[in-house]
């Protein structure tokens, strides 16, 4: 009876525990992918995600600086916005940024339809999001440099 229990429950249970533990440990490690030479779809997807994460991190780093510039501009204007019943520069910026995020996501969803149903559809959307985010980053840099 104990021998049968060991073969039917204990040994498979121990093996499952070891496999799950090894998979969990492996999942905690960053995969080693050469994004310059990515060929497999899983590598391309990973690298596209990394590119978007970098572009998004830059956007998030620039945002507080752009907000500060808009708020400083608003402070220089005094009460003119309130007197005229219009949004401040900062409020307009915030509204525009929220609309831009929605635009970016919808535009990239549309662009990815070129590959509808294929393995490239998701990554095409991510590549588009990266491109538009990098364009937004360039625009924010222009604002901060005073050339806009």
TrEMBL record:
The keyword Signal applies. The keyword Signal applies. Residues 35-137 form the Lysozyme inhibitor LprI-like N-terminal domain. InterPro entries: LprI-like_N. Keywords: Signal. Residues 1-24 form the signal peptide. Pfam families: LprI. This is DUF1311 domain-containing protein.
């Amino acid at each position: 009876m104990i021998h049968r229990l060991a073969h039917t429950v204990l040994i498979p249970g121990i093996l499952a525990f070891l496999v799950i533990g090894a998979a969990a440990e492996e999942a905690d490690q960053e995969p080693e992918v050469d994004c310059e030479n990515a060929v497999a779809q899983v590598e391309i997807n990973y690298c596209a995600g990394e590119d978007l994460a970098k572009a998004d991190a830059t956007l998030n780093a620039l945002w507080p600086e752009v907000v500060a510039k808009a708020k400083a501009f608003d402070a220089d204007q005094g009460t003119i916005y309130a007197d005229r019943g219009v949004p401040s520069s900062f409020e307009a910026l915030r509204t525009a940024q929220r609309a831009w995020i929605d635009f970016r996501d919808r535009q990239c969803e549309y662009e990815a339809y070129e590959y509808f149903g294929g393995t490239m559809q998701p990554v095409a959307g991510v590549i588009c999001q990266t491109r538009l985010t990098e364009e937004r980053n360039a625009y924010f840099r222009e604002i901060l440099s005073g050339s806009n």
